[in-house]
Amino acid sequence: MSNDLLPIGRFARLCRLSVKQLRHYDDLGLLAPAWVDPSSGYRYYRPEQARDALMIGMLRELDVPLPAVARVLAGQGAAALRDARDRLEADVARRRRALRLLDRVLADGLPETVVSVVEEPARRVRVASEAATPASIAAATGACVARLLAAAEGPPSLVGLFPLDMADEFEVRVALESPSGEDVLPGGPFAQALHTGPYEEIALTVHGVLAWFGDRAHAPAGPVREVYLNDPGSTPPERLETRVLIRLEDVR
């Protein structure tokens, strides 16, 4: 063992990390000790490793995920940090939308949702899909819409398709009604409500429709359909209208 090696406790204090953190980073392959005592398993570090350890600690304080930290240590710093920044920015935008929604609920309470049962015909469509997370759902939906509009024939009729249960990762789909479409949106009985207002507040209307299902012990079937009735480019957000549809699985 070299005399310039530092035991893990002293190295941890030097780098403002805990011994537990250093062990975890070793297990992940982020920061391996310079030497491990084969008889005791005790870890030792070189002083020059402190720079990497401090970098890891700083990036973790900034909520940079560990895979991105590994890329920084591997010399891919600029690209990894840009990706981490984009994720944080998307998360901040999502939280701001949530705050606006919460402010509305605090001011007005949950909206009264008028729900009716309609029979929807089957529709032939073209479908675009994107992987999404709760933080990126708006961007993923926008990307799907852009692809479909580029190939639209005449005035577009767009339907957003979203899972009933949104996990950490899920698929967003948008359908464009088209006689030449290769996919079919199935018809049948649907619970329907009209949402008026910004797209970011549609969750309130979806909640109202699902509450209607619960009150009547009906079984909902996904995906949630959002039929966009206005052009967001020329309609103020507060006047946008969207049909929210959820299929009644146990009604024929």
Can you describe what's shown?
Helix content is 39%, strand content 25%. With 252 residues, the chain is of the alpha+beta class. It has two domains: 74 residues, Multidrug-efflux Transporter Regulator, Chain: A, Domain 2; 133 residues, Regulatory factor, effector binding domain (Multidrug-efflux Transporter 1 Regulator Bmrr, Chain A, Alpha-Beta Barrel). The strands form two sheets. It has an eight-stranded antiparallel β-sheet, with helices on one face. A three-stranded antiparallel β-sheet has the order 1-3-2. Strand 2 and strand 3 form a beta hairpin. Helix 4 runs antiparallel to helix 5. The longest helix is centred in the middle third of the chain and has 32 residues. It is elongated.
How would you briefly describe this protein structure?
By secondary structure, this protein is an alpha+beta fold. Helices cover 39% and strands 25% of the residues. It is built from seven helices and eleven strands.
List the helices and strands and how they pair.
Layout: E1 6-7, H1 8-15, H2 19-28, E2 35-36, E3 43-45, H3 50-61, H4 66-73, H5 77-108, E4 116-120, E5 123-132, H6 137-150, E6 158-162, E7 170-177, E8 183-185, E9 188-196, H7 202-216, E10 220-228, E11 241-248
Antiparallel strand pairs: 1-3, 2-3, 4-9, 5-7, 5-8, 6-7, 6-10, 9-11, 10-11
Helix pairs in contact: 4-5
Structural class: alpha+beta
The N- to C-terminal Cα distance equals 77 Å
Please tally the helical runs, counting DSSP H or I stretches of 4 or more residues: 7
Top-tier CATH class of the largest domain: Alpha Beta
CATH superfamily of the largest domain: Regulatory factor, effector binding domain
The CATH topology label of the largest domain is Multidrug-efflux Transporter 1 Regulator Bmrr, Chain A
**SSE series:** EHHEEHHHEEHEEEEHEE
Radius of gyration: 26 Å
List the uncertain runs.
none
| Overall CATH architecture of the largest domain | Alpha-Beta Barrel
Provide the spatial order of strands within the biggest beta sheet: 4-9-11-10-6-7-5-8
Helicity level, as a percent range?
25-40%
Count of discrete structural domains: 2
